[in-house]
Amino acid sequence: MKEKASIILHCNAVTVEFDGFKAVQGMDFELKRGELRFLIGPNGAGKTTMLDVICGKVRPTAGKVLFKGSVDITRKKEHAIAELGIGRKFQTPSIFHTLTVFENLEIAMSQNRGVFATLRARMRNEDRERMMNQLAMIGLEAKAQWRAGRLSHGEKQWLEIGMMLLQEPEILLLDEPVAGMTDKETDKTGELLHAIAKKRSVVVVEHDMEFVRNFASKVTVMHEGKLLKEGSMDEVQGDDRVAEVYLGKRRDADAGRTTA
Ligand SMILES: Nc1ncnc2c1ncn2[C@@H]1O[C@H](COP(=O)(O)OP(=O)(O)OP(=O)(O)O)[C@@H](O)[C@H]1O
């Protein structure tokens, strides 16, 4: 019998109000294990607020967020949600510029060690192997001894993603990860996200439609705090309401690449 792909995250009728203004209105969102999902929509659609709700930065006014089916994280604090396995990456990388790439990864690793501290000697080889694997995955093996401040913008983003992965999140939330990247870096990031989604679930808020087209299998479109459309990029692009919503509402900065 074919096993039903399991849902790792379920947002049910989430509403967020800021001083009476509904930034998100009755939003439903389901994410499967090992899924890479793109969340798109015009400015102010409520995308970032949804990520804020999932990671506990913002408490919803109404609705529920369930992790792994039964863990209600709706009212949990940000650090508790992070510990449960939901990692959030913001646009500006929070890496240590004066430390090397390797040292940055070491710090991320030690943050995760906690209860294993007493087993450190035994863990060390295993840790090292995990860090080397992580370095390879983010494509920074050759720059392991570089100070992180010398890395390009894209490489800094990959380093932070690598640091987050060492915390072993089950869900990774990313806000516009390719903003400011070169086309080559953007493509490498798309490949990295696919590699990550082999083991974890990933949600990416994105404005760069060329990037979404190249790397998305399933896309969720939000508009005015609500779910407008969900489906493949072809289905989304062929939808009249989506076209209408995007028409004339593109951000000027993205106009060169954005043609949704
Ligand atoms: N802390 C806040 N206080 C008041 N209003 C807010 C707050 N955060 C977001 N908003 C408003 O909620 C709406 C949704 O914002 P949000 O940032 O989630 O949209 P978005 O889809 O991520 O947009 P963008 O693509 O521009 O980042 C916007 O109108 C925004 O001004």
From TrEMBL:
Q: Which domain of life is it from?
A: Bacteria
Gene Ontology molecular function, alphabetical: ATP binding; ATP hydrolysis activity
Q: Does the keyword Nucleotide-binding apply?
A: yes
Q: Name one GO cellular component term.
A: plasma membrane
What PROSITE patterns does the record tag this protein with? ABC_TRANSPORTER_2
Q: Which SUPFAM superfamilies match?
A: P-loop containing nucleoside triphosphate hydrolases
Gene3D superfamilies membership: P-loop containing nucleotide triphosphate hydrolases (3.40.50.300)
InterPro entries hit by this protein: AAA+_ATPase (IPR003593), ABC_AA/LPS_Transport (IPR051120), ABC_transporter-like_ATP-bd (IPR003439), ABC_transptr_urea_ATP-bd_UrtD (IPR017781), P-loop_NTPase (IPR027417)
> What are the residue boundaries of the ABC transporter domain, all occurrences included?
9-249
Keywords for this protein? ATP-binding, Nucleotide-binding, Transport
Q: What is this protein called?
A: Urea ABC transporter ATP-binding protein
